[in-house]
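Homework help board

Subject: predicted structure for assignment chain

Our instructor gave us this sequence and asked us to write out the predicted structure in token form, then describe one feature. I got the tokens but I'm not sure how to describe them. Can anyone check?
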Amino acid sequence: MPKPRKRPIGAAGPDKKGPSGKRTKTGNPDETSAKMENSSPQKTSATNSCGKNPSSHWLMKSEPESRLEKGVDVKFGIEDLKAQPNQTACWDGVRNYQARNFLRAMKLEEEAFFYHSNCKEPGITGLMKIVKEAYPDHTQFEKKSPHYDPSSKKDNPKWSMVDVQFVRMMKRFIPLAELKTHHKAHKAIGGPLKDMALFTCQRLSVQPLTQEFNFILSLEEKEAS
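My token output:
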């Protein structure tokens, strides 16, 4: 898989699937890796405790720092997305059923926070939008890919991906520590981050947002707490 690990849209074989792979890994007690997420996939609905309300906004984790997985560097930060043609890439490599179901629930033009994971300071770094709804993830069929799944069949693929496009950087970086402070306060007194999946469903690399989205956007205009 060529650096920076995402192929330009349309360059992934006969079905014209696009760029490649984001992952998260453990390095912070509040972070959970896609590798861990993938270690024991469970068939869960997109409507359980991590997504019981319909969502039109999302948080999607990816690693901005180099890490080899099966000999492949799975680094993909927001600067890598900005560097792609049309600032657009596919979001592949998701191997958790619930996270996959969230990908399949995404609609065109819905917005997602780009979350830097497993790095010195994890947090929300920018905004992107969905520009292609879910379709088969080509990496599940590629034997040299760290995301290869020999149990998945081309006539009935298990795994899906979407295409995302860079929208903008956050006006300021919103670190995990700041979000955690608000989450703890909102749990105690009520508030939009009290049930945020980033803390209640840490294993998921793709997470739904409802009331959390606008609250997090409002933090841009405030000094870091």
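Reply (TA_rk): Your tokens look well-formed. For the description, you could write something like this. The two ends are 40 Å apart (CA to CA). That's the kind of observation they're looking for.
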